[in-house]
Amino acid sequence: MGAFDHDEGYRLRVRKNAAFTWLVLLPSLLVLAILAVIVLTVFLKGVKALNPRFFLETQKPFGDPGGGIANGIVGSVMVLGIAALVSVPLSILAALHLVEKSSSFLSTLLRLVVDSLQGIPSIVIGVVIYAWMVVSLGSFSAFSGGIALALIMIPTVTTSIQEVLLLVPASYMEAAISLGVPRWRASLGILLPAAKSGILNGVGLGIARISGETAPLLFTAFGNPFMNLNAAKPTGAIPLIIYEYIKSPYADWHEKAWGAALILVAFVFALNMAVGARKTDKSR
Amino acid sequence: MNDRQTHDYAALVVRSLNIRYADGHEAVKDMSCVFPRQGVTAIIGPSGCGKSTALRAFNRMNELIPGTETTGEVIFGGRNIYGADMDPVRIRRHIGMVFQKPNPFPKSVYENIAWAARIHGFKGGMDALVESSLRKAALWEEVKDKLKKSALSLSGGQQQRLCIARTLALEPEIILMDEPTSALDPISTSRIEDLIADLKKDFTILIVTHNMQQAGRISDMTAFMLMGELVEFAPTKRLFVHPEDERTERYITGRFG
Questions:
Q1: Which residues is B204 bridged to in the sheet?
Q2: N- or C-end of chain B: fewer Cβ atoms within 10 A?
Q3: Is the ipTM of this complex over 0.95?
């Protein structure tokens, strides 16, 4: 009698295994296909709009030849820059507090705030900033748009920075403390630098996350068809241009909307890839 | 011995030290002793006997573990470091610590030494301080060409000597060492032991070790702890050859622990 004589169920097991493999594989392929279709659609429809003038010229009234989204690109850089400048320091300090004084009352409160902030619809944040800033300052502005985006960015970035800070070996802080260094100096001089790369990744992903936000900008940055470099004035942004153009009835503007969408997607992709590259670089 | 003499002789005076963790475990029970100035004092005992906890009490490092309760007195420089007006940050400047696992900062070799000195307001030549600290730790020749390299690129033994150099740079009076060689290979271990023998002329060294041979080789005085209790504290030779307590004898002859 051979060793394999009792393996009647073997074929069935192989088939079950194959079936399960496909069961897992198919949905993954489906998700991948959806992403591919989105990217491909944006690319095919958007690439027609791309030419040097698209990047260098501002929006033009319908009917005028040419025209681009330079005002939106510059506006987005401004609004995202303000959002990052406001949210990153706050997020770093909040994350430090959450890690260093995790059982304090303030930390409990902070966690609650971060969680609930994450759950607030972005349009509500836009409305609130409108009421707080736009009304009291008397004008739509890049500044209020940046603050609205900062509020959306703070919870995600705080959470991701907190996670990377927790990964820093406790022995580093122990060593610093044992040298008679005050705790806050140890946090700034040892903990943060040790987590620098992870913090940068978190910030990159946070910016990628908000770069396509449209709703919070509608009544804050508002949009501006002209080039604007004054943060206190209404300012264009790529998502706002997409929104404005795609709801228009003109084929030419639809094409430009796709072009703007392509630039946005490329930017987000580039940010994500930069973060991914940093991560693999670090794990080496 | 009167107070004045005690002060000259003692680096640390411990009186009725009790340490209890948040879970209620009494890690150190009513410890009282006088650690002499200069020289090496070893604290030995089986795992969990409280030797590391006691050591960490001498520069208030146990406070990093939430819920730890410490009572009693540790007199250093004529003052109780657990006194109400004592700032642990100031104490640690004078009572340095070297840990079980080498833990250099993820910075350059140079910065590992310069960072804390700068924070403490060191005004002299930083290059000279880095060099002299590394020389005292017998590491200079090995790292003088890679001062800008990451400390994490050094070998384990070099990292531990860098940690010692980092402590030496602050010119502490006492250096606490918590099983400093237990994560190292025999060659690195013997270099650290040579270094300790060299440093004891200028510093008071308290070393926790689970290795009795090591205690025998490097220490002048030895304290034996068991279940949180300081059982015997005597000159090393006497403790190993003529232990007074039966429990000490059983431990050093390997009958338990």
A1: B174
A2: N
A3: no
